Amino acid sequence: MQLDEIDRKLLRILQDDSRKSVQELGDAVGLSPSACHRRLRALEERRLIAGYHALLNPGALGFSMQFFIEVGLISQSEAALDAFEAAVRDIPEVLECHLMAGQSDYILRVVCRDHDDFERVHRRLSARLPGVARIHSNMSIRTVKARTGLPI
C-alpha cells in the first residue's frame, strides 16, 4: 500500500498521541486543518487506522500480574479452533489470543489482580475452554518493552 511521507508522519504522530487535534496534526505535517482532515479520513477509509483508544495503566487499575499462557488443544480441526476462539473471546482477562504455528496452538496474554485472581482465571481457562489438552503458564516479571505502534 502506497503511503507518502505526510501519511507516514501522520500515522507516527497518531500512534504516539491520538488526542492531538486536527489543527495540531496539520501544523506538524504542514497541512491546513481541512486538508489534514481529508488525509485522516482517507487513511481511515483505507483501514490503515483501525481505531482510536486510550492506553490504560494496568497497575494503577489493580492488574499487577500478567501471564503468557500457552494452550494446546486435543484437536486442530476447524470446529475445535472455532469453538476455542469463541469461548476465549468471552473471558475479559484475556487481552490477546494468538493462533500459533509451532509447539503451542495458542498463546494468550492474560492480566490478573493477584494470585487468587490468577487461580480463578486459570480454572476458568482449564474448565470452560473447549478442547484444551494442556496449559503452560508463564508469569511476566517485568515489561521491558511494550509498544502499541508499528515501525512506520
SSE map:
Layout: H1 5-16, H2 22-29, H3 33-45, E1 65-73, H4 78-88, E2 94-99, E3 106-112, H5 115-128, E4 132-140
Antiparallel strand pairs: 1-3, 1-4, 2-3
Number of domains: 2
The CATH topology of the largest domain corresponds to: Alpha-Beta Plaits
Low-confidence parts, pLDDT < 50 over ≥5 residues? none
DSSP strand count: 4
Q: What's the helix-strand series?
A: HHHEHEEHE
Radius of gyration over C-alpha positions, nearest whole angstrom: 20 Å
* Oligomer class: single chain
Shape: elongated
What would CATH call the class of the largest domain? Answer: Alpha Beta
Helix content: 25-40%
Task: Identify the CATH homologous superfamily of the largest domain.
Answer: Lrp/AsnC effector binding domain/regulation of amino acid metabolism (RAM) domain
What do these coordinates show?
The protein has 152 residues and is of the alpha+beta class. It folds into two domains: 5-45, Arc Repressor Mutant, subunit A (Orthogonal Bundle), CATH 1.10.10.10; 65-140, Lrp/AsnC effector binding domain/regulation of amino acid metabolism (RAM) domain (Alpha-Beta Plaits, 2-Layer Sandwich). It contains five helices and four strands. The chain has helices spanning 5-16, 22-29, 33-45, 78-88, 115-128; strands at 65-73, 94-99, 106-112, 132-140. It has a four-stranded antiparallel beta sheet with strand order 2-3-1-4. Helix 2 (22-29) crosses helix 3 (33-45). The two termini are 12 Å apart. The mean pLDDT is 94.
